[in-house]
Amino acid sequence: MTTQNVYGTLVCSDNTQIPLSASLTDAASAANVTTDTAFTIVAQNAGDYAPGKTVTHAIISAKTFIGFAYIVRQGLVAAVLPIASRTAGGSGNGSGSLPLNVPIQLMPGDKVLAYIDA
Fold it and tell me: How far apart are CA 39 and CA 55, in angstroms?
């Protein structure tokens, strides 16, 4: 098993962006992707970082294979997030966010989870 860096952005209705980053282990269960400490100083869950903000667009990317990403609220999937691979010939570089099926208002405790594989 190896680890990969997972990056992402949640874009809110007021055009604020929530930067995400985590180092996840391949083929483990879905793991928490927190705010990027290069921008937010402390790693926090998305809902704790920006409670009350409405997420309208997002992108979560990993270098090789990313299976899925979602926002979980109280143990249930609240929103499925768009994903991308950053490999050459993959589905893109992960720089452009895509709209969510339904916008979601963040609540304290909401987490972004992602699953990756080699």
Answer: 18
Cα–Cα dist 4/31, whole Å: 12
Is the pLDDT confidence value at 89 over 80?
Answer: no
What's the CA angle centered on 47, arms 105 and 19, to 5 degrees? 100
Whether the pLDDT of residue 94 is over 70: the answer is no
Residue type at 16 in one-letter notation? T
Query: Residue 71: helix, strand or coil by DSSP?
Result: strand
Domain boundaries, the chain: 3-117
* Residue 91 backbone class (left: φ over 0; alpha: ψ -120 to 50; beta: rest): alpha
Residue linked to tokens 């209705």: 13
DSSP 45: -
**Residue 92: per-residue pLDDT:** 44
CA distances (Å), origin 118, targets 31, 82, 85 = 15, 19, 11
The Cβ of residue 78 has, within 10 Å, a number of other Cβ atoms equal to 18
